[in-house]
Write a structure and sequence with these properties.
Blueprint (H helix, E strand, L loop, with lengths): L8 H9 L5 H15 L7 H11 L4 H7 L8 H15 L14 H43 L1
Helix pairs in contact: 2-3, 2-4, 2-6, 3-4, 5-6
């Protein structure tokens, strides 16, 4: 059994550094993972990221690592931000998550509107973060391959 002293920062980063493949292959995997990690599908983000990385022929290990963008420490701020972004695109107030004059018949409608805002915002934020993360990783691996 390993002790905590055996697991160091460098060993964790070596998982990221020692990936084989072209810079584009690795960047594609991480970008897909980051995109998948921005959605509120708790417990399925890693599976979704790996599935789409296999479809797009990207690095599945980096896709799994990329989904860690959402974790117990970032869930609330990330999804709140995603909801706010979705609300901007639908030109509605994002200050009220559920309207005060809630009628039972409107509950399903408001749930759909809330989900639509959250998923659309997650798509937009996920796309932006995936482009940024993928670009950074592409250049990191490109520089690494030149050495």
């Amino acid at each position: 059994m390993r002790s905590k002293r055996d697991i160091t920062y460098n060993k964790i980063l070596s998982l990221f550094r020692n990936q084989k493949g072209s810079p584009f292959f690795n960047a594609k995997g991480l970008a897909i993972g980051v995109f998948s990690g921005c959605f509120p599908f708790f417990g399925f983000q890693t599976l979704i990221g790996i599935f789409f990385a296999k479809l797009a022929k990207g690095n599945i290990v980096l896709a799994a690592i990329g989904t860690w963008i959402s974790n117990p420490f970032t869930y609330i701020p990330l999804y709140y931000f995603n909801y706010k972004v979705g609300s901007i695109f639908f030109n509605t107030s994002s200050n009220e998550i559920i309207e005060k004059s809630l009628v039972v018949d409107d509950l399903w409608k408001q749930g759909r509107v809330f989900s639509l805002k959250l998923l659309f915002g997650s798509s937009c934020v996920g796309l932006l973060l995936a482009l940024i993360a993928g670009s950074i990783v592409f250049f990191i691996y490109k520089i690494k391959n030149k050495r």
